[in-house]
C-alpha cells in the first residue's frame, strides 16, 4: 500500500494536544497506583487489625479519607489506637480537616478501637505497625502524585481550543473531558476521515461477520482501550445530566439491549456528535444531538421509574403480613432486590450487619 501510494500518511497532533495526552496518561497511571496502594494497605490491615478497615465507612472515603490516614499514622496498631483518648482523637480529626461533629466522631472511634479483639504478640504487632507506616507513606505519596497531576491536567485542558466544546456536553467534567480530548486529538478529520472510523477506533462500532447464510454481530475488541473506557464512563455520566441521553438509553433498554450494550450505543451517538462539532466548528447542542426540544418541561425533568408501582407495593405489604414470609421471599416473588423491599415497601433502609456478624453468617451452613 505504501509503494502504490494507497497508504494514508500519519497525522500527528498539535503540541498542545500531545502535551495533554502525555499528562492524561500519567494521571491514569497515578490513579491506578493510588488504587493499588490503598488495596495493599487494606489487605495488610485485614490480616492483623480488621477493626481499622471497618472504622471508616465507604461513604466518607474509607481508608482514602484524610482522617483515616492521619489516625493510622498516629496509631498504626490496635494497642496504640486503644490507648488514644477521645480528646487526642478529636485533635487528630481536627488536624485532618474535620470541622463538624468532631467530638461525636472521636467518641465513636474511641468505642470502636476499644472493643475486645484478638491481638498478636507485642513484638509481632510492632513489626506489623512498622509495615503499616511504610504502606501509609507509599499511599500518601501516591495521593500527592495523583493530585499534582490532576492540577496539571486541569491547567492544560483549560488552555486547549476544544475545551469549550467538551465542557458544553452535560456530564463531562474536567478529568473526563481531558481524557477524551487526549485520545481523540485535535485533528479528527485528518486522522480518522469520518465519524464511523473514529467510532471503530474507539470500539463503539460493532463488527459484522458474515459467511454464507450465517451473520454475526459482535463486540469490537481491537480498539483504543483508553478511549473505550473513557467513553463508557462518559455515557454513564451523561445519562444523569442529559434528558436526551437518558431517553435514548431507556429506548435501547426497552428494545431488549443489556446495560453495557445500551451504554456502548449511547457512547457512539456522543462520539459522532463530538466528531461533527470538532470537524465543523459548531458548538455542541444536546437537543440537536438527541433530537428533543430543550424548552419542553417534560424533557428537562429526569424521571426515574419506580421498581414497584402502587398496586405491587400493596400486594407486597399484604405478603409481608402473612406469617412465615420475610423480605427476601417477597423480593424473589416480585423479581426485585431485598433492598427495594426495605426501601419502597417498608419505608426504611435495610439494616446493615456488623462485619463479624456478616462473616459468621457466611460461614454458617
What report would you give on this structure?
The chain has 365 residues and is mainly α. It is 65% helix and 3% strand. It contains 20 helices and two strands. It has a two-stranded antiparallel sheet. Strand 1 and strand 2 form a beta hairpin. Helix 11 (195-202) crosses helix 14 and helix 18 (327-334) crosses helix 19 (338-345).
Strand order, sheet with most strands: 1-2
Helix content: 55-70%
The portion of residues forming beta strands comes to under 5%
Low-confidence runs? 353-365
The overall average pLDDT, rounded, is: 87
End-to-end CA span: 66 Å
Shape: globular
Run of helices and strands: HHHHHHHHHHHEEHHHHHHHHH
Tally of helical runs: 20
Secondary structure tally: strands: 2
**Rg, please?**
26 Å
Structural class: mainly alpha
User: How would a crystallographer describe the biggest sheet?
Assistant: 2 strands, antiparallel
